[in-house]
Amino acid sequence: MTSATTAAVTLDDGQLMARTAGGDMSAFGELVDRHKDGLVSYLSHLAGGRERAEDYAQEAFLRLFHTARRYRDRGRFAPFLYRIATNLVRSDQRREQRWRRIAPALTAAPEPPPPLPQQSLLEGEVRSFVSRAIDELPLAYRVPLVLYEIEGWPYQRIAEAEGCREGTVKSRIHRARKLLKERLAPYWNGGSP
Amino acid sequence: MNDEQLDRRLDEALASLGRPRAGDGFTAEVLRRLKEEPRTGPRKGPQSRAHRWTAWVPAAVAATVLAVVGLWMLDREAPAPGANGARTAQEASVGSPGGPADPPPRSESRQGFQQQEIDKLQEDYLRLSQELAELKALVEESEPVLYLGGDDGLGLLLPRGTAPNGGIPAGRPAEVPRPVRIVPASQTQL
To answer: How far is the alpha carbon of A49 from chain B, nearest alpha carbon, in Å?
Structure first.
């Protein structure tokens, strides 16, 4: 470990961003190291799949680097970074939705996803179907649910990342849980509604 | 399964999802992609002050130029006072050598044109004053006469001081009284 890297480890995120703005690549590398796992985890639940999540995360870090001079540290680095990443997913989702609207007219109808089985599931299968149920949630509900339930963020931090009020975050999480329960209850009830 | 049990099952399911980690070489890959980009330094970004200046200054300059050109065109097209054929009564009475509708001055300023009009009026005033003085002198030098009539060629004038007290006798129009002078018609006109 070089002396510059050693020094970077002792700095907080805001100080590292200031150094990044000055072109310090080792400071930026330290920022990536600190936040890559959390971001990849978040994006894998948001975008469905680790590979895709890594692509999004890399792109988010590149954009973070290019916006370093605009960043004003108010102790909200993580919400800033996660917001960049969420916007990437949101943009892609809109693009996919547009494509889904016009694709049937251009190609043969895509094969519909297999329906969720109407029977009791093994634990591994449960995880798979919970993930699918999360993927089917609207992004506005999915983001706060993943950040709160899986990443363990507090409401206030989620509100900063989403640019909304804490009350809005709470109601969206409540709504997301309700939708998930409605979706998964039949399987937990052994196939009966 | 009641709602409380569903909540518990959901919490367990969400907790079981796990948290995937970034793969080995993730940071190195990000740094490599940065180096491969043609622009390796952090961008100033669209919110920088310099960018905002360069964005609106050309637009402001263009708007100013358009405004100036527009005002200049309006000034050219607007009729100058007294130059649109509807001249004032004063101008009509003194006449104008330039005709009824001189074109408005295009290259001169409006102030210069007004000064020219004032100069013309002063010249007319001086000319009329001179004619009036000549006329007064002529009246004072001439004896008073009574114009009796005439035609295109001749006129009959009766000097006031020589008229007979009893007047000209009626019923004898062919006889011209002695004091009556016969003059060319041109001398009977003022």
So the answer is: 9
User: Where is average pLDDT lowest: A164-173, B9-18, B151-160?
Assistant: B151-160
Residues A181/B10, Cβ–Cβ less than 8 Å:
yes
- pTM for this predicted structure: 0.55
Helix or strand run (H / E) with residue B154? strand B154-159
Whether residues B43 and A69 touch (CB distance < 8 A) is answered with yes
Residues of A whose CB is below 8 A from B3: 181
Chain A neighbors of B26, CB-CB under 8 A: 32, 36, 40, 54, 57-58
User: How many Å apart are CA B124 and CA B130, to the nearest integer?
Assistant: 10
Which residues of chain B make contact with A190, given a CB cutoff of 8 A? none
Model confidence at B190, pLDDT cuts 50, 70, 90, reads: low
Mean pLDDT (chain B) is 72
- Find, in chain A, the residue whose alpha carbon is nearest to that of B21: A37
What is the least distance, in Å, from the CA of A15 to any CA of chain B?
Answer: 15
The whole-number pLDDT of residue B89 equals 45
In contact, B153 and B182? CB cutoff 8 Å: no
